Every structure is written in structure tokens, then in C-alpha cells.
User: Fold this.
Amino acid sequence: MQTRLESFLESFTNIMIGYIVALISQLIIFPFFDIKVTFTDNLLIGFYFTVISLIRSYTVRRFYNNRVKRSNKIWKPTERY
Assistant:
């Protein structure tokens, strides 16, 4: 079971790695589609999507963490099979 802080740190680390990968991908792929943006705009586009992704990742993590917590309260096995 993760604390909220642990969930946030896991999501943040995952998203920061994703941000770097996305930024490099944008720099390589955008020219193939004739999308011209400045490097600063590229950073901002990546930043906005990163914030959205962080919120999504944290929310999903907390949802499943709470779901596991609830199911453990309802069913506590007395024997191991």
C-alpha cells in the first residue's frame, strides 16, 4: 500500500522521464509533419501535457490504491491456500 506522497513521487518520476522522452520525440517527429515551433514553445507544449499526465497518473494510482485498501477490509483470509 502506498501513501499519497509515495504515489505522487512515483507518478512524478514516471512523468518526468516521459517528459524528456516526449520532448526528444517532438524535436525529431514534428519536422516530419512540417510542424514548426520554437524550442520554447516545444518546452511549453511538453510541460502542459506533462501536468495533465501527472494528474492522470496520480488519480489512477490513488483509485487503485484505495480499491485495494477497501477489498482488504472486506475480505481477510484466515488460511493460506
User: Anything to note?
Assistant: The chain has one domain: 4-74. Residues 4-74 form one domain. The radius of gyration is 19 Å. The chain is about 75% helix and 0% strand.
